[in-house]
Structures are given as C-alpha cells and as structure tokens.
Design goal:
This protein is an alpha/beta fold and about 140 residues long. About 25% of the residues lie in helices and about 35% in strands.
Length: about 140
C-alpha cells in the first residue's frame, strides 16, 4: 500500500488553491472548478468543493470543521517559509506557532489556512531527525 493523498473539502476551492499555491510555491493541477491537486514528491493535497461529496448526504465531510488533522509539508527552510507567510497578509494564514524546534528534532511552523485547517511546515534539523527522513527515502 502507498499513501496517495489527503483531500480537504471546502466551500471555496479557488481560495484554497490560491492559498496553497502561494504558501507552497507549487502550481495546482486543476481538473474542474470543484477539484484541484497540489502534487508533491511525497503525496498530494487534493482540494475539493462540497459538490464532490453531496452523494454522502449527512455523512459528507463538513468544510472548515477540521479539529483533528494537521496537513504537513516538509520544507527546506522553516524560517524562510515563516517570513514569506508573515509578509503575505493577503493569504489569510493565521500563525499559530512561529518557528520552533520540537523535541523530536524537527523545526516546525504551525498556521491555519483560510478554512481554519491546521498546517505544519517542518524541516528535520537534528542529526537524528535528518537520519529518520533519509531512511524513509531509501
């Protein structure tokens, strides 16, 4: 089995696409007005409108209601990403926690996207953390 993607349901696909394109520096692949993907080497962040899950009725995911998932991106430089987000007030990112080195060796920046989803930009910085990610890539 191979992890493929996580899909975020939103009322405004265009807004979230613009946000994630700006925040990550990656261009989205837009399939329809209701579906786009930010494709990375490790997996895909899919952004989909509520119409894509209408068939689920009362069981459909509710946009802007995430309270349990953190969307994580490994970045080259957490501090540079922080400065970039801080200087782009128009993106709608809410900084939750500025760059902090975690006890497990990752430098981490936590913020919320315009729908309130928690996002973590991180980079392994200790030799142990760097080693963990090198092993995963082999």
């Amino acid at each position: 089995m191979r992890f493929a993607s996580i899909r975020v349901i939103t009322e405004d696909v265009g807004r979230l696409v613009e946000f994630y394109e700006s925040a990550t520096g990656l261009a989205a692949k837009r399939s329809t007005d209701d579906f786009a993907e930010i494709i990375t080497a490790g997996g895909t962040l899919a952004l989909a409108g509520t119409r894509t899950v209408q068939g689920l009725g009362a069981q459909a995911p509710r946009p802007a209601a995430n309270q349990s998932v953190i969307v994580e991106f490994r970045v080259a430089d957490v501090d540079r990403a922080y400065e970039s987000l801080r200087n782009r007030n128009d993106l709608g990112a809410e900084i939750v926690s500025g760059p902090t080195t975690q006890p497990w060796g990752n430098r981490s920046l936590l913020f919320r996207d315009p729908d309130g989803n928690l996002v973590n930009f991180f980079a392994p910085v200790t030799p142990e953390a760097v080693g963990r990610y090198e092993q995963q890539e082999q």
